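The instructor's notes for this session suggest beginning with a concrete chain rather than abstract definitions. Hand out the sequence below and ask the class to guess, before any prediction is shown, which regions might be ordered.
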Amino acid sequence: MNWFLKSKTDKMIVGIALLLSATTEVMAQELSINAELRPRAEYRSGYSTPITDAVSPGGFILQRTRLGFEFKNAYMKTHLTLQDARTFGESAITSEPAASSGALSIYEAWAEVVLIPGGTVKIGRQTLAYDDNRLFSASNWSNTGKAHDAVVFKYELDNNFTGHLGFAYNNDKAISKETVYSGVATYRYMGYLWISKSLSTGLSLSAIMLDEGMQKTSTDNSGNITYSTKVDMYHRYTAGGNLKFLTPSCPFNFLATAYFQFGKTTATKDLNASLLALKANYTFRPAITATAGIDLYSGDEGKSATKSKTFNWLYGGPHSFNGSMDYWTASLPTTGLMDTHVQVAGKLTPKFAYELRYHVFNTAKEMEYSNEKQGKSLGSELDLKLSYKMNSSVAVEGGWSTYFLSDNSRYLKLKSADAKSRTPNWAYISLTIRPEVFKIKL
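After discussion, reveal the predicted structure:
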């Protein structure tokens, strides 16, 4: 009898333990606080645009500070990131509020809630990043980054299929009747569908369709902006995708990209543009990975007032493409661009990595000015980047770049093929500190 009671008690204890374990697993909650401090010093002597000998190179220090809070359980996740982005010397030394010009803001503030198994909705201010970050990116290089006020529905099926459906609609303030949107976020309305499908081991295909609605405005005889009492927008559409092969077991991988843009680039100009890109690399050993690629952006002679073939970067991270000196990222030449690039990169030690890249730039269409054909050459660029990871929280990165100008690049940047300028150079060094301040399971 005693043996029976003991056995029954043991079974009860085991049952309660299993129940508590299951309940704890379902109700598991986690709270974490993290921080980032990233000062970056830059030297610019012809960065983005050449400068003449009469102008001195510039030097400055940027700093980005972020503090993030995140709470999650089995049913939802919430996230808040506070950000201060500034240039050294931008704020007065005194601590009086009226004398300070700090840029404290909310970088992210969103909640993601589970709707169905595999399906969630994420709403609020959030970063959008897809594929190789050409169209959407958090733009980490930027001192402020990029974030959108959006609603995104997500669905994932067994890691083989992922789909996102996103929407955004912007206003300057709460309104009772239709008003002109100032365009702080570029678009008034945005909707997109992104899907990704695994085809086989290491091989995946993604596709995106994006619709942007921009506010139509007009100007009266006095120069005042006028607008319709109804929402009146012109639309720019982007469609395309990526085919990617990437697997740790194979030293070779590649990425093929194709995007097409159509609709309107302004309220009065039709858009018909494209981007085709191919990149492949081969890892010989951890210290040596060789990469070769080509990016082709459409263009035309730029003589039409009603049609454009110039591709728009949208909301990607352009600093990662077309050279680190950003000569052809803020705005592409109307004649299009072909960027042929090669790179050698790798890890010399587990903590020390390098990248050496060379770009050759040409226009897609031959340039013409001074009543003569001028060829396609836009010069070339050499980029070097070194990085050292001191520990799990601290990393140092530095880089140097130089641009080899051609007559055509001088003409596009300085409005004269014969303009005299300094040899373009750019260098930076950055310190990134990312400690996990606090993490607890509740």
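Then share the key points. The chain has one domain: 29-441. The domain at 29-441 is CATH 2.40.160.100 (Porin).
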